[in-house]
Amino acid sequence: MHHFEYKDDALHAEDVAVAEIAEAIGTPFYLYSAATLRRHYRVFADAFAGADALIAFSVKANSNLAVLKLLAREGAGADVVSGGELRRALAAGVPAGKIVFSGVGKTVEEMTAALEAGIYQFNVESANELEALAALARRLGRTAPIALRVNPDVAAGGHEKISTGKSEDKFGVAWSEARALYAHARDLDGVAVKGVDVHIGSQIASLDPFEAALAKLAELIADLRADGCAIERLDVGGGLGIPYGAGEVPPHPEDYAAMIRRVAEPLGVRLIFEPGRMIAGNAGALIARVIYDKKGAARRFLIVDAGMNDLIRPALYDAYHEIAPATRRPDAPPVDYDVVGPVCETGDIFAKGRALPEMREGDLVAFMSAGAYGAAQASQYNSRPLAPEVLVDGARWAVIRKRPSFEEMTAGETAPDWI
Ligand SMILES: *Cc1c(COP(=O)(O)O)cnc(C)c1O
User: Fold this and answer.
1) Ligand 1 centroid to 201 CA: how many Å?
2) Does domain 4-32+281-409 have CATH number 1.10.1270.20?
3) pLDDT (average), residues 2-27
4) With a 6 A CB cut-off, is 275 part of the ligand 1 pocket?
5) From 27, 51, 115, 238, which residue has the greatest number of CB atoms within 10 Å?
6) Each residue of 74-90: pLDDT tens digit?
7) Alpha carbons 53 and 51: distance in angstroms, whole number
8) Which fold has domain 34-278?
9) How far apart are CA 72 and CA 56, in angstroms?
10) Residues assigned a catalytic role
11) First to last CA, the chain
């Protein structure tokens, strides 16, 4: 469910015409709907009403400060994976007591910042990290609240590049080693064992892998408690899929919540969630303008002014994004287009053989469901400035990240005088 709709054949975000924003700030740009962000957060929060739960938005999905601030106002915590994301979450007003820190490569600098901020939980991903964190905390005279991220060896996720819970993935502590590492952590000064953490993948289209992982975790928690570890929290990570195409029907958040509540309630734990895509994915679109309708020898190319540097998901994960013309022309004949960007890479393709109504040069198109892992993964490859981001809320809209000028884009670069 989202708030991008046609009104009189013109695509709107809530009450604002996409074309109006494009006229004002140029293209390409990311466009987010505040009502959709709030709605997705509330659907999730309401599904866990009455349960002891922390919903920590996965900042890597969309790290814009305005988006984080909006979610913080709703009561969201934050799941961060770097020192930069930690600073963003704090700057956006997320209380430290609602921040969890995940990631396989936390550095001493990052862990120091998190300890000094007093975050809620470190999700520790290896024995090495456990030792480093404990030693650092002792040196700083602090105690780090921790969960070990365990790897339940469950296959999940829509693509091999977004599966994280298999034994060959780099994430988490191997299932066979978890119990022994917990016993070690229990006796280690500098850390306090609080819970168990898991994150099995992303864009997961069925409840089965979540349920399989939870069943294994329930057994582990019983074992750990028998070993004298006071497990009071269960962090089940993120990963719930969203519909990108018309035929996709991922589990509804309410069904996901019902399953988790059923399995987790007997455990008597506080639940932590790290949803990213589910909150932000369908709340955003990338808006681009058609530069050329190029009739190649074998194919018809719709060349737009957004490229893989702006939205890398199709190139990186073969991801599907619905492409919606900003102006609907019911009488335009259908054409099979290869929709491509201007970047000098063969992989700069958004869609192959996509049936669209015939487009005109200068038309606007929206790449839908681009609110998660869109702007956050963008780069300035080909010296293309980062696409600005815009937030709509009802009839209001505001630029929440401006397009950098050429001077800003190159500001950190200098040539030494010996060249
Ligand atoms: C990426 C990530 C998430 C968010 O995943 P979604 O599929 O966007 O919900 C949550 N937790 C961790 C540890 C992650 O790396």
Assistant:
1) 7
2) no
3) 97
4) yes
5) 238
6) 999 999 999 999 999 99
7) 6
8) TIM Barrel (3.20.20)
9) 9
10) 344
11) 56
Q: Which of the four pLDDT bands, split at 50, 70 and 90, describes residue 248?
A: confident
* Residue 147 near residue 178 (C-beta atoms within 8 A): no
Ligand 1 close to Cβ of residue 165 (< 6 A): no
DSSP state of 327: B
188 has pLDDT over 90: yes
**202 Cβ closer than 6 Å to some ligand 1 atom:** yes
Q: From the CB of 162, is ligand 1 less than 6 Å away?
A: no
pTM: 0.96
For residue 202, which atom of ligand 1 is closest to its CA?
7
| 377 CA to centre of ligand 1 in angstroms | 14
Is residue 92 within 8 A of residue 69, CB to CB? The reply is yes
Q: Which band of pLDDT confidence, cut at 50, 70 and 90, is reported for residue 160?
A: low
Q: Which residue's CA is the closest to the ligand 1 atom numbered 3?
A: 238
How does pLDDT run across 396-412, given as a tens digit for each residue? 999 999 999 999 999 99
Across the range 380-406, mean pLDDT stands at 98
Q: Which atom of ligand 1 is nearest to the CA of 239?
A: 7
Tell me the per-residue pLDDT of 87-113, one tens digit each, with 9 for 90 and over. 999 999 999 999 999 999 999 999 999
3-state secondary structure of 405: coil
Give the residue with greater pLDDT, 169 vs 333: 333
Task: Identify which of 55, 62, 71, 79 to mutate to test ligand 1's pocket (most ligand atoms within 8 A of the CB).
Answer: 79
Residue type, 366: A
Every domain range in the chain assigned CATH 2.40.37.10: 4-32+281-409
User: What's the gap in Å between 191 CA and the centre of ligand 1?
Assistant: 24
Ligand 1 touching residue 278 (CB < 6 A): yes
Choice from 44, 59, 60, 317 to test ligand 1 binding pocket (greatest atom count within 8 A of CB): 60
Six-digit token string for 82: 């770097």
Q: Looking at ligand 1, which atom is closest to the CA of residue 278? A: 9
Assign 241 to helix, strand or coil: coil
Cα dihedral sign, 83-278-268-51: positive
Reading phi first (left if > 0) and then psi (alpha if -120 to 50, else beta), residue 9 is in left
Atom of ligand 1 nearest to the CA of 61: 8
DSSP letter assigned to residue 232: -
31 CB-contact burial (10 Å; exposed 0-12 / middle 13-18 / buried 19+)? buried
pLDDT-derived band at 156, boundaries 50, 70, 90? confident
Rounded to whole angstroms, the Cα distance separating 121 from 401 reads: 30
